[in-house]
Design a protein that fits this description.
heterotrimer, A alpha/beta (about 400), B mainly alpha (about 325), C alpha/beta (about 500), B: about 325 residues, mainly alpha, 17 helices, C: about 500 residues, alpha/beta, Rossmann fold, six-stranded mixed sheet, about 35% helix, globular, Peripla_BP_I (chain A), Amino acid ABC transporter substrate-binding protein (chain A), BCAA_transport (chain A), signal (chain A)
């Protein structure tokens, strides 16, 4: 037992990554303080550092541009150590200290209990990055989400399929977690609506490393599209093993973004990920105002590391918060909630509005984009009005690649 | 026959037996002091609920882990069963949460009985290893049996009926329910410290062969201890489910949660009345203090502190107090 | 009188070894029965079968006329069979009082009554002053007493005492003997295993002798002590009589030449008034002995007399409390065990202690890890293989796949790999079949002929004395007799030391 405790302690040591709270702003007037909760340590620390960068740059920009009607904005960013218990503790302290609005959290597993608590406390929660549909479906009057719901990730694929015309059957393989099931459900509904038979549908348990048996079965179905949703390591492993079993599809689709839409997918997958099409919340080459420039600044802020779309969405979240604070009749939770409901703001991430539609409540209806891996880089290929490249279709069979 | 037998009141004999009524007195004192927490720390109720709730579950864990010496790394199973049984009965059948919690206790006891009957025939590290496996299996079943559990998307509790006129979502109410649970667990432990059954468990922990040689049936007694531990943990699980308001199999049945309970008992001192409480206070309260004063590095410092405790107080921090008092 | 315990055709197999062989045994109420026999005779196994700690392979056990062959241990305890463990098993973190309370609760579910009964036992056992001490803080003598006390809390009808006297000093031993009588007087029936012969011969109404798992003799202490079968069982067989001069065993070793060189090779080992102890239990009292260059000296004595301890003291595996251990001009008692090996003193431990998962050759090579011998590895290896051709054949086999005799050869071979000048062998014939025993003794002689001085500890007294130049008899940690091997063979003193008459 003693050894086990030591081993455990060492794990904590490794998980404990560096960080710090984001800062105040130099401006006149009495500052307005809001809370933010993110995972600066623990298993989600990588994404927490993205959010921190986004919040920090946003606060700089807001205060340089005159703050909130002359008063500087302060975002008090607290670490939830990737744990729901901690997030609830932090939220209580924020609310007791009079914070009228909280941003966060990163992971759905933390955000969902947090959202339940905030709704009960009647203080608005503005979420940027959590993926699960159930955060805003059915949602509550006090929970707002900037990031896309999973339906939005899946939709552009079917628009693309329709345009291409030659797609007939679809196979679905998702990880057995909340996000995977959301994506699976969206795929099933939209395939049915579009008249595409689903010839294979399975959820694999996280931690699985050998996908070859299931991939071989998919191969037997001869599906035109293999639609997947996985976190980082699985996405790379899947593509490598797809090559290994020589599974050919016309389109390999990362239908749930996440693992298929991050820089490490390109790095880890090498030439096996070429031609993969993934949905994405955002891409630096899209034609949204200031997107390019913001990407460069975030990269500089993070010491040269490649920022993911989480950083941009956090930036957008902070910008939306500032907008609501400026417009709010009173700086009370209710006042801010009312202001958030009437948000209509163009950000580097795209337009942000909070709408009620198909069961969602206070959800930003922004469509997602599609990117294809071309020459080991993501190229935005959909929708056509923001695309910078053309889809390469169909995906060459493995034997025809060099 | 030699000298007249010692009377029970003989000081030597008294000293040899764990002072019964005394420790029960201490239990009441500690619980009474804790009852003032919500008054003093009114802005830190969530933290208080977490500490007391986890202390209760860690004390329940200790009935099996510390007093009986059977290391379980799968107690999250009972936390999960408690939370899920309660929530599903509330959501699907409109049962009141407290009856749901009772049903959870029933389900946990059944699971523990089957699990114990199979694995307690094994000695050595097998029970610990098997416990990890059982917990993992339970998690996978809960994740995949979506029609019953709601699957990976999890379960949320939007509203609950009032309990004796109290709002179950109020942190203050949750705190006192957790305190009652902790009280139950600690009283159970203090009974184990001096009762016949408690001595059976301790004897099994110390040496199973010798225990059998004095007429103890180890398998039966271990299963009984397991049932008690599972029942108390399950109650804690139901309350934890209400506290979170939303939960999913990944969190509720996680190895991480099982290890936390064991760790709290170990850090505070296993097989002691207040060890698990000390451990929970240190790990939960301590990590909150560290989070505030060492932002971004709290887990690092936390790990470091655990190592220090293991190195310098291998029997748990609770025993340090005793050692210092002796000096 | 009624019968308390009876066994029918009781048998226990460990793999292929018959540990208890069709033992028929009966005990009457109120008796004290002594169960004796050489090491490995099956005494403790017999206890384990009767108490239920082990399952029988075949046969039946009756307790007070009721069959208990398949009853679990705890039921037998409830029925009234109490036992002590040879390897003591207290509940270490409980206090002495609590240790007893556990058993007291069995007969007295009421706490008050249980405490009262435990207090009575604690007083009777003279443990009252330790009532609040944790069991792990007790001395060996204290723990032995706790073992007995805990068994007594069951108010046993039948009490099995496994070596509760061995290892106690004379005063403590006397106290325990007195106590056992008192327990019997309270109505308990007692079976005791004991190596201290004087004690068991004095206490027992009747003695049963086990050898190789079989009941070979039964009777009053006097009858048993003069029984020729018993003497053979203790002092060894006569089968090895003709084993002496054989030159056939080590090809390539001119036996005669080496033999003649014995008087001038290597230094002399001398122990002077050596005292040694395990914790608080003193085992050696003023042991003095000498092994001259080229000699084969045997050290014999009953179980627990201090033979192995003497060897361990020389090898510096045990601290010398007082006295000197000299090897040539070196004081071994002031060196580390590592340096002792470097000087050329090798020990082949009892039970062989091989690395079972390693091959024969790997096992041998571990014997030459010292800088001094590493360069001579190949030479030494060849020498060992010449001495044991069988090991060469099996060099790639795992040690665990060898037979008992082969394993003993390997253990001796490993000892030889350090090119020792003095080789100490601890019970090399233990647990081996008679023909193999003979072979082992032949090998020992061959080794001596190679010019290596040998100090041999043996239970097989007949064989050992036959091949030894000289021998010492040790009893309760003291050397009581010394003389040429064949002479001691005839000595009545030896018999006394072994059988306690």
């Amino acid at each position: 037992m003693k050894q086990m405790i030591m081993a455990l302690a060492l794990v904590f040591l490794v998980l404990g990554t560096a960080g710090g709270t984001s800062g105040a702003a130099p401006a006149s007037g009495e500052p307005i303080r809001i809370g933010a909760i993110s995972s600066l340590t623990g298993s989600f620390a990588t994404f927490g550092s993205m959010e921190r960068a986004g919040y920090a740059l946003a606060v700089d920009d807001i205060n340089t541009a005159g703050g909130l009607n002359g008063r500087p904005l302060v975002i008090d960013l607290q670490d939830d150590t990737s744990s729901a218990n901690t997030a609830l503790t932090v939220a209580e302290q924020f609310i007791n200290s009079g914070v009228p609005l909280i941003l966060g959290a990163y992971s759905s597993s933390v955000t969902k209990p947090l959202a339940v608590y905030m709704a009960r406390q009647r203080v608005p929660l503005l979420n940027s990055n959590s993926a699960d549909d159930s955060i805003t479906k059915p949602g509550s009057d006090y929970v707002f989400r900037v990031g896309q719901n999973t339906d939005a990730y899946v939709k552009p694929f079917f628009a693309l399929f329709k345009q291409l015309g030659t797609i007939k059957t679809i196979a679905i393989l998702v990880s057995n977690n909340a996000l995977g099931h959301s994506v699976e459900n969206s795929l099933l509904t939209q395939a049915k609506d579009g008249g595409y038979p689903v010839v294979f549908d399975q959820a694999y348990d996280e931690g699985l490393t050998d996908f070859r048996p299931v991939l071989n079965r998919i191969k037997d179905t001869g599906a035109d599209v293999l639609a997947m949703s996985s976190y980082e390591a699985d996405a790379v492993a899947l593509m490598r093993q797809i090559k290994e079993v020589n599974l050919n599809a016309k389109i390999f689709a990362g239908a749930g973004a996440t693992g298929f839409a991050i820089p490490s997918f390109l790095k880890g997958g090498g030439d096996t990920v070429e031609y993969v099409i993934t949905s994405a919340a955002w891409s630096p080459d899209v034609h949204y105002p200031k997107a390019h420039e913001l990407f460069a600044r975030l990269k500089a802020f993070m010491g040269g590391a490649e920022p993911s779309y989480h950083a941009i969405r956090a930036y957008a979240g902070a910008t939306v918060a500032a907008d609501a604070l400026r417009r709010a009749a009173t700086l009370s939770p209710e006042g801010i909630r009312a202001a958030l409901q009437t948000t209509s703001l163009t950000t580097p991430f795209g337009t942000v509005e909070f709408k009620d539609f198909s069961g969602f409540h206070n959800q930003n209806p922004l469509p997602s984009i599609l990117m294809q891996v071309q020459h080991r880089a993501y190229v935005t290929v959909w929708p056509l009005d923001v695309a910078v490249g053309k889809v390469i279709y169909p995906t060459p069979v493995w034997t025809a690649r060099k | 026959m030699p000298q007249t037998p010692l009377s029970v009141s003989h000081p030597a004999v008294r000293r040899g037996v764990n002072a019964g009524p005394w420790s029960l007195g201490w239990v009441l004192v500690v619980l009474a002091v804790l009852a003032f927490y919500p008054v003093v720390f009114r802005n830190f109720l969530t933290l208080g609920v977490t500490i007391v709730l986890f202390a209760g579950m860690a004390t329940a864990w200790d009935v099996l882990g510390g007093w009986t010496g059977q290391l379980s790394l799968g107690h999250a199973v009972f936390v999960g069963i408690g939370a899920y049984t309660m929530a599903l009965l509330v959501l699907r059948a409109g049962v009141a949460p407290w009856w749901g919690a009772m049903a959870g206790v029933g389900a946990s006891v059944v699971v523990a009985a089957m699990w114990g009957a199979v694995t307690f025939r094994l000695r050595g590290p097998y029970f610990a290893l098997a416990s990890i496996a059982v917990a993992e299996m339970t998690r996978i079943v809960a994740n995949n049996w979506a029609s019953l559990t709601g699957g990976a998307e999890g379960v949320s509790l939007p509203s609950l009926p009032r309990f004796l006129g109290l709002d179950l979502f109020s942190r203050r109410v949750e705190f006192y329910i957790a305190l009652v649970l902790l009280g139950l667990a600690v009283v159970a432990a203090s009974w184990l410290q001096r009762s016949r059954f408690g001595y059976h468990l301790q004897a099994i922990r110390e040496d199973e062969d010798a225990a059998m040689a004095v007429g103890i049936n180890p398998t039966r007694d271990k299963v009984l201890a397991f049932l008690a531990s599972a029942a108390l943990t399950s109650l804690g699980g139901s309350l934890y489910g209400i506290f979170l308001g939303f939960f999913e199999p990944r969190g509720m049945f996680s190895l991480d949660l099982s290890v936390q309970l064991a760790l709290m008992a170990y850090i505070g001192g296993v097989g002691t009345l207040f060890g698990p409480l000390v451990g929970a206070g240190l790990l939960v309260g301590g990590s909150e203090v560290l989070r505030i004063y060492f932002p971004g590095k709290s887990l690092f410092v936390y790990g470091l502190l655990i190592i220090l405790v293991v190195l310098f107080a291998p029997d748990g921090l609770g025993t340090v107090v005793r050692r210092v008092r002796r000096v | 009188m009624s019968e308390v315990l009876r066994t029918e055709q009781l048998r226990k197999l460990f793999g292929g070894l018959v540990a208890v062989n069709d033992v028929e045994f009966a005990v009457e109420e109120g008796e004290i029965v002594g169960l004796i026999g050489p090491n490995g005779a099956g005494k403790t196994t017999f206890f384990n079968l009767v108490s239920g700690a082990m399952r029988v392979s075949s046969g039946r056990i009756f307790f007070q006329g009721r069959e208990i062959t398949h009853a679990p241990a705890y039921q037998r305890a409830e029925l009234g069979i109490g036992r002590t463990f040879q390897i003591m098993k207290p509940f270490p973190r409980l206090t002495v009082m609590e240790n007893l309370l556990v058993g007291a609760y069995l007969r007295h579910p009421n706490r008050h009554a249980a405490v009262r009964w435990a207090a009575e036992v604690i007083e009777m056992m003279g443990l009252a002053e330790f009532a609040s001490a944790s069991a792990r803080s007790l001395t060996t003598a204290g723990r032995k007493r706790l073992e007995v006390a805990r068994a007594l809390t069951l108010s046993p009808t039948l009490l099995l005492l496994d070596e509760v006297v061995a290892g106690l000093n004379p005063v403590e031993a006397e106290g325990t003997v007195e106590l056992i009588r008192r327990i019997r007087d309270r109505g308990a029936t007692i079976i005791m295993v004991e190596h201290v012969m004087r004690v068991i011969m004095g206490l027992s109404d009747r003695i049963v002798v086990l050898a190789n798992g079989s009941n070979i003799a039964e009777g009053t202490p006097q009858q048993v002590a003069t029984n020729p079968d018993v003497i053979t069982a203790y002092l060894g067989t006569h089968e090895g009589r003709d084993a002496r001069p054989q030159a056939t065993w080590s090809p390539g070793t001119p036996a005669g030449e080496n033999h003649s060189a014995r008087d001038d090779t290597g230094p002399t080992l001398a122990l002077r008034r050596v005292q040694a102890a395990y914790g608080d239990v003193q085992v050696l009292w003023d042991v003095s002995l000498e092994v001259r260059p080229g000699e084969l000296v045997a050290l014999i004595g009953a179980n627990g007399a201090g033979k192995t301890t003497t060897l361990r003291t020389v090898a510096r595996l045990l601290r010398v409390r007082d006295g000197e251990v000299q090897f040539g001009t070196n004081r071994l008692d002031q060196m580390s065990s590592h340096d002792v090996v470097n000087l050329g003193v090798a020990m082949v431990p009892e039970g062989r202690q091989l690395f079972n998962q390693m091959t024969v050759e790997e096992n041998l090579l571990t014997g030459s890890s010292l800088a001094r011998t590493r360069t001579l590895r190949r030479t030494n290896l060849d020498r060992v293989y010449t001495l044991f051709p069988l090991l060469r054949e099996r060099r790639r086999q795992e040690a665990s796949t060898l037979s008992g005799g082969e394993q003993q050869m390997l253990a001796i071979g490993r000892g030889l790999m350090s090119a020792p000048r003095l080789l100490m062998l601890d019970e090399p014939s233990l647990g081996l079949a008679p023909t193999i025993v003979e072979e082992v003794f032949r090998v020992v002689q061959d080794i001596r002929r190679e010019g290596i001085t040998v100090l041999l500890v043996e239970q097989n007294v007949q064989q050992a004395l036959r091949i030894a130049d000289r021998a010492y008899v040790i009893e309760s940690g003291r050397i009581v007799l010394e003389g040429p091997g064949p002479e001691l063979l005839q000595s009545a003193e030896v018999r006394r030391a072994y059988l306690g008459i």
